[in-house]
Each structure stands twice: as C-alpha cells, then as structure tokens.
Amino acid sequence: MLLKDVRFACLDTETTGLSPDDGGKICEVAVSVSKAGQCLDEFTTLINPGMPMHPDVIAIHGITNEMVKNAPTFDMVLPQLLGVLDNCVVVAHNADFDLGFLQYEFEQCGMRFPKYPVIDTLKLARKSGRFEKNRLGFIAQQLGINCEGWHRAMADTKMAEQILFYFLAELSKHGVTTLEQLSEFQCKRWKDLLSAS
Known about the structure:
- The chain is α/β, with parallel strands linked by helices and 197 residues long.
- The protein has a single domain, classed as Ribonuclease H-like superfamily/Ribonuclease H (Nucleotidyltransferase, domain 5), CATH 3.30.420.
- Helices cover 44% and strands 18% of the residues.
C-alpha cells in the first residue's frame, strides 16, 4: 500500500501501572488519525480505571484519582475507539506497551483487539541509529518538536505523529513509498537497507 494512501492512527495510553499483568489499567487514551500529513480525526478521553492510582504514577502523568472519578469506563469508550481506529495503521512509540494494555482492556470487555498493522516510532528511531536517547520526549526535543504536556496521552500522541512525519520525509528521500517498505525499516538497521538498495 502506498504511504500517501495510508490512514495512520497515532495513539498513546496513560496507565495506573507498568503492566496489565501487575494489575495496571488504562486511565487515559488518545488517538490522532492522519493521511498524507493531514489530520482527519482526533479522540481523547480520561478513563475511570476502577481502582485508586498510586502517588508515584500520578507524579508521572499528573492524572489524579479526582480527575478520573467521573470519567467513563473503558467499555463505555470502546465503540468510539474502534470507530476511530477503523481502517487504520496504528502508530505508537513503544507500541508493545500501549497495545498490551489495549489488548487486556479489550479482553476484559469480552472482545479481541483487532490485528491492525503497526508502526512503532521507537523501533524506527532505534534502527535509524540517529538519536542519543530514544525516549519519546528526547527524540522530540532533538527534532525541535513541542514537548509541552509530555506524559499526557494527546501530547504524546502528537509528538509520535510528528516523529512519524519526520521519518516518512527522511525515508521518502531514499525511495520508501509503501507501507511494506516502512515496516521493513523498523525491523532492520537503516544503513543495511540503504546500502543494499
């Protein structure tokens, strides 16, 4: 599929812990859908995780128990989330983290998380070998992308989206025009792929 025709859904979650295996739940989710660099749709909401959050977690993302007290539960936002993600390639920074939580939350609702194609900006950054540190905010700072609100879902989503656009522009200079090619660049070292072309 040509990249200019792809609907990219950049997403991020904020959570009550580091893993659903340890009882962590989603407390905020954000999605920004774009095609050919143009924003088509956005969705963000706080989510009531049904459990109190530890002060250490609150210190990271700033989402308090009071803020989520009257927020919808995940099952209430699931239909809208599915609608936003429909027919999209999912993009996230450290996608395994976010997708692990989403898969868990879907399972709790008696559903299976759809098998979307996934582009991970963390993998692209690592394979490019261009950054001193590969954390989202550090890459954004290095690229001159606004980092205000780092660790809130929509702010992180927008950073990942801008980082994706950077990679798309850089790789287009080397003839990367399809989703299949882009996927390969997140799995292998860029210099190896470029030297082979």
